[in-house]
Specification:
The complex is a heterodimer of chains A (315) and B (307).
Chain A: H1 2-14, H2 16-39, H3 48-62, H4 80-87, E1 100-101, H5 105-133, H6 137-141, H7 147-184, E2 185-186, H8 194-223, H9 226-243, H10 256-265, E3 269-273, E4 280-285, H11 287-311
Parallel strand pairs in A: 1-2
Antiparallel strand pairs in A: 3-4
Helix pairs in contact in A: 1-7, 2-7, 5-7, 5-8, 5-9, 7-8, 8-9, 8-10, 8-11, 10-11
Chain B: E1 4-14, E2 20-31, E3 35-40, H1 47-54, E4 62-67, E5 70-71, H2 76-79, E6 83-86, H3 98-106, H4 113-122, H5 138-150, E7 156-160, H6 168-183, E8 187-192, H7 195-199, E9 204-209, E10 212-218, H8 219-226, E11 231-234, H9 238-247, E12 252-255, E13 258-261, H10 268-277, E14 284-287, H11 292-300
Parallel strand pairs in B: 3-8, 3-9, 6-7, 7-8
Antiparallel strand pairs in B: 1-2, 1-4, 4-5, 9-10, 11-13, 11-14, 12-13
Classes of the chains: A mainly alpha (315), B alpha/beta (307).
């Protein structure tokens, strides 16, 4: 198994797609952050009425009125003051600020997590589909005929490679963001344990990217093509998760994208329940439940990929 | 015990529009250890499918196959490190260098860089080893695939049409390589649709047509089964020579610039004497031996199996 893993690692790290994706992500980060840094402007004082609105909202928040029905602080906030400093900011009341704030890094990383996961999907499909596209699977199987081992080794390698690559991309983004803040930004309003929370978001996002890469690997193995794998997966995400989810009431708790979002943000998936004036939001999937949902997708699809690989002839 | 043993092997493929195609039909094979074994037949005869079954890439519909005593596909993993193979057109990652492709495979058997280098040298790819495979010609890719099979230092080599895409010089090199591998005591199982090519290197052959084995055995025996068909004689004036022989009661016809004489090899002296008496001197005289192609056509002409 060690020899198979070693071979798969060499194959994965030799792929151009790996370097291309990292370079594209790095370039995107540098260009985006350059623009953001260039446009970063400090705040001016709020007008009298705006100042009043801001102070009133801040008081309401500190009274606990911005918290949900269970009165618990959302994850990533240790105190009510930290939570309110994040939720009620002067720039929301027109102080003209679009200054780079180091405290925003966590939110920005959460916002960019879908792009990071996308990297995982493309890599997973590519590393799973390439052997079929260039017909090297037959060559590989004449060296290691145990197909379950081949798929297992490949899955492990894809998981590790995608995790490391996406974590590296996020760290690179964080470093460039920090440099932008040093040049034209502010470190004001940093909550305690800020760095820990940022690292947790990065780790969770990379973990989700790794799991999604396994899903893409499984689909590409079944489809026997990189393009087929990506196409089927996106077809599913658009048709089922984007369209059907709005029609079937019980579906949202089982959806991949929403579960991934819950893992990254640690906020539960919520759904409107009740009717008329009795409508309210209800949590239908907790973050820990979301891990189980995504894990179930991975297990079922890898199982299907293994069955397809074992049963079907190889050209 | 044979190195490759096949009993009643059958493989059917489902057609998209219903029905089934029988690619291999109750095939029996017994390939002894050592030497070169030719696996012959026209395109579509079932050679590649048989090889895919032997390597566990394709599941047989019926029958059994054993490779180095191990059941295929269940026990294949136990012997695969002693089996080198090329199946049909060799597939390698086109964006990787030749060396990197071999390194990826080599890691599966802990093959070191020196062995990879010497395998590349042996097939004449030493200077192009660090170029991307997409820049290789078909012949170079074929050589790379052969180099890959040599990495394992295999006891058995299964080569499917190894001369495909090679230029005449490359064909000669591959022929020499196959010959030398067989002489080293390895078993080389080589398939080809070019019967004359195999005749030059194989010790034993099996001839396949429409998924069935029509004959098998040592090359000499297979050729002998077709029987010697007479003598070939060359004289300055073939037409005149044929007339002289016919007058002497010997059946002879002109074939190109030679004479085909219907006499056994033991009666060659009679031919030279009759012709010399009439001032026609023989410059070449040899038995008109059947080649594998002739044998194949002979064996399949009544069965509608010829290509």
């Amino acid at each position: 198994m060690i020899r198979l893993l070693s071979s798969e690692f060499l194959r994965a790290r030799s792929r151009d797609v790996l370097k291309m994706l990292f370079v594209a992500a790095a370039l995107g980060t540098i260009v985006g952050m350059s623009i953001a840094t260039w446009n970063s402007k400090p705040a001016h004082p709020l007008s009298g009425q705006a100042q009043q609105f801001y102070e009133r909202s801040l008081r309401q928040c500190l009274d606990g009125r911005f918290l949900g029905p269970n009165q618990e602080l959302p994850p990533n906030f240790d105190t009510l003051e930290e939570f309110c400093a994040d939720q009620v900011r002067p720039e929301f009341y027109g102080n003209g600020s679009n200054e780079l704030r180091l405290a925003d890094l966590q939110d920005i990383l959460e916002g960019l997590s879908s792009l990071v996961v996308l990297i995982g999907v493309v890599l997973g499909a590519s590393l799973g589909g390439a052997d079929w596209s260039v017909r090297t699977m037959a060559t590989l199987l004449t060296w290691e005929p145990r197909r379950a081992r081949v798929l297992l080794a490949r899955a492990l390698v894809v998981l590790v490679v995608v995790f490391l690559l996406t974590f590296g991309v996020q760290v690179f983004f964080g470093v460039v963001f920090r440099a932008g803040v040093v040049l034209r930004g502010t470190t004001e309003g940093l909550p305690s344990h800020w760095l820990t929370h940022v690292l947790e978001v990065m780790l969770r996002t990379s973990a989700v990217a790794g799991l999604f890469s396994l899903i893409a690997l499984a689909v590409a193995t079944i489809a026997r093509s990189t393009a087929g794998g990506i196409g089927i997966l996106f077809g599913y995400l658009v048709l089922v998760e984007g369209f059907l989810a709005n029609l079937v009431v019980w579906l949202p708790r089982w959806l991949l994208v929403r579960a991934a979002g819950a893992i990254v943000t640690q906020a539960p998936v919520e759904q409107v329940v009740g009717q008329g004036r009795f409508q309210r939001m209800e949590a239908v999937l907790t973050p820990s439940g979301a891990w189980i949902v995504v894990g179930a997708y991975v297990v079922v699809l890898l199982g299907a990929a293994l069955a397809a690989l074992r049963v079907r002839d190889v050209d | 015990m044979g190195v490759i043993e096949v009993e009643g092997l059958r493989k059917e493929f489902r057609r998209i529009r219903g029905g089934r195609t029988v690619a291999v039909d109750r095939l029996d094979l017994d390939v002894p250890e050592g030497g070169v074994y030719g696996f012959l037949g026209p395109n579509g005869a079932g050679k590649t499918t048989t090889i895919r079954c032997l390597l566990g890439l394709v599941r047989a519909s019926d029958g059994t196959a054993r490779l180095l005593g191990a059941d295929v596909p269940g026990g294949l993993h136990g012997v695969v490190d002693r089996v080198g193979s090329i199946v049909e057109s060799p597939a390698m990652f086109p964006r990787f260098t030749g060396r990197r492709n071999l390194e990826i495979l080599g890691r599966l058997q802990r093959v070191g860089k020196p062995e990879i280098g010497s395998a590349l040298e042996r097939v004449g790819l030493g200077e192009r080893a660090d170029d991307r495979v997409k820049t290789y010609s078909l012949g170079m890719r074929q050589r790379l695939a052969i180099a890959a099979t040599l990495l394992k230092d295999p006891a058995v080599l299964i080569l499917d049409e190894p001369a495909n895409g090679l230029d005449p010089a490359g064909i000669v090199e591959v022929r020499e390589l196959i010959r030398s591998l067989g002489a080293e005591g390895r078993t080389v199982f080589v398939s080809s649709h070019i019967l004359s090519e195999i005749q030059q290197v194989a010790d034993r052959v099996a001839i396949l047509a429409r998924g069935r084995c029509v004959t098998a055995g040592p090359v000499a025996e297979v050729l002998a089964s077709a029987g010697a068909t007479g003598l070939v004689a060359r004289v300055r004036d073939a037409e005149a020579g044929a007339a002289v022989l016919r007058r002497a009661g010997i059946e002879a016809v002109v074939a190109g610039d030679v004479l085909k004489v219907a006499l056994a090899a033991e009666e060659a002296e009679r031919v030279t004497r009759v012709l010399a008496e009439q001032g026609l001197y023989v410059s070449e005289l040899r038995p008109d031996e059947a080649d594998l192609e002739t044998v194949f056509l002979e064996l399949t002409k009544d069965q509608g199996l010829a290509p």
